[in-house]
Amino acid sequence: MSRVFLGLSMGCPLAFAVLVLFVSFFSLAEPVDPKNISQWQLQQSQSAIKLSSWPVSRIQQLEQLSGQLTKKIEQLPRHCPIISDNSLGYHSAINLHQSLADTQFHQIEFTFERPFIIQSMALVPAFNPLKPYGGSYAFPDNFKIEIEKPMTGQFEEIINWMEQDFPDPGAYPVFFNNIDRKSTRLKITVPNTSRTNTTSRTNTHFALGEIFIWAYDNETGIFENIAHSNQTQVFVSSSYQQADKWDVSYLTDLDTGLGFPIKEQVIGSQDLRIIPKQQLLDEEVEIQLDLGRVQHISRIDFWPAKARSDILLPDFGFPDDIQVEISDKLDFKDANTMKPTSRGDKFGTLFSVRHHPIPTRYIRIKMTELQQINQYRILGLGEIAIYDATGKLINTEIKASAKGFPTAYQAQLSLLFDGISWGREIVAERDWIMGLAQRRPLDYQLNEVKNELALAHDYWEWLLAKIIAACILLVVLLLVAGVLLAQRAHRQQLLVKQGNRINRDLHDEVGSNLGSMTLLVDELAASYTDSAISDELNDLSLMAREANASLREVIWHSDGKAISLPVLLNSLFERAERVLRGVILNKSLPQNCPNIKVSLAVKRHLTLFFKEVIHNCARHAKASQLDMSASIKNQQLWIQVKDNGCGFDLTQVNKGWGLNNLTERAIEIGAQVQIDTQPKSGVCITLAIALELLAKEPKHSYQTSNE
Questions:
Q1: Whole-number mean pLDDT of the chain?
Q2: Which of 132, 316, 419, 560 shows the greatest Cβ crowding within 10 Å of its Cβ?
């Protein structure tokens, strides 16, 4: 009955991302069944619950929805059908003969003794004993309900499901409310052929378990089920009769098979159970009630008591015979006897007595043929439910007294009028049937929500397993990557150690040899008187010293690291000390020199720039003094090298001096260079570079021939 769209497919977990759970047309905004297709379409399109695609949020939403539905269901009647093999209801004729097949419609017609205002009605399906909870058997797919207009003899259509199949109600009643039409006749029409196969005229039959018609009587003010009235006549166009199973009279015998009219929620309170140990029950027990004032009583139901948990008897202690008298006088003169309409002879029915509503204040109940246990009579009653002419339960202002059972149980008589039996609240007949109709979509929806919740849990477990597997895989990959990086770092450390060892060996072996060569050449130059040979030896000594200084610089550059500005300046000035011989060196380093990291490229360019300057001084200047100074001015580094040598004419520069290299290197690192010289006046070379450029890498890699 519930129209619920489930968009989840466990075969394709990604389908989980988009799903909308549509609420059935039996939403709480309209608590009963729609009377026609247009109402159904309106109700069906009213609301939709959007669920999150993230499984954790989705599970929370479904659990919240499940809790909300459960709370709503607890406030409605209990649904526990008790299906019997007998008194199944009314069954239309089975069209085995052509004469019956020619009939286009089956009809059930009710004729009332006088005009009533029909307020609501219910159709209870006939149940199939072979299905769990009965299920509906042959409930009509298409039908319409009409009432006769007063004084006209014409019928007015109030419910029409002829153009579209009515959803299968299952083991629940169908309830139509707010009819509000005055009439003496009501007619139910069911087509004899299938609506979807009219061409071949497939003959159909249908069945109903019970019909309720609740109406007001303007003359008496009574609200009752007039379908059950003795004055109501029932006519059917055709019927299938089978002893103890199918009969027209079963349409209004009040044997619905829907169980007891109590709410789902358990609220406590005990039933009256008398199991004497010392004082015995009499053969006849009498209970007399005083309603406090005269009221119109139409019905009295006697509920069996709920047995103890260790006794599996649903009618434990229930008397076999009950007699009920009602009167408006205490002496019960001219009392009316209410005859049983249902004797409670099978589980799922109550012992009920009914009477046309008459003024009543006093009720006398006699119970005989009591059950016995170990030769002791016992009595068990859950409730004596008394209903007035409007169908309302009377359970206040009742005073009760009893004869025939121990006085110790007199105080428990109030348990019979508390409106509770089996720990649940008793519901009036109309509210019971309407509540079950209200419950039908909620039960279906709760079942769908539970199924969807199970799928959501399965999907979340599947997704969580995938996430855990992915995490494990990621951890494994990270471990592998870590091992590889560790191995690479280890290899890198080995390479660095190997490089350092090679550098040490070069420094120790080659550097030592170059130093020895320098000393030897200097001694030879000093021993020769021939100036030409002496000059050659001095050049060789200079080359050895430069080679030794260059070796140190190569080792220094090979670490591939940046260096601070103070260390770089000291290294530059130390080169002059290693290369120059017989020259007075004056050094001037800046105080509070900023500890700026000099990039590898700038470090290399400055080193080679200074190498070129010192080389020219040693080769060509013939200077006896060299002044080297470094200073910080206006966020710039200034380096100046000045000798007192022979100088030269800038217009006649020898390419072998490498002055162009100096200029190009300065441009490469963003510095400015100035060369001041004149013949016989020495050379002064000044380099200026912004401090912020020292840490940056040049955009282009400039190379010179002497690199």
A1: 81
A2: 316
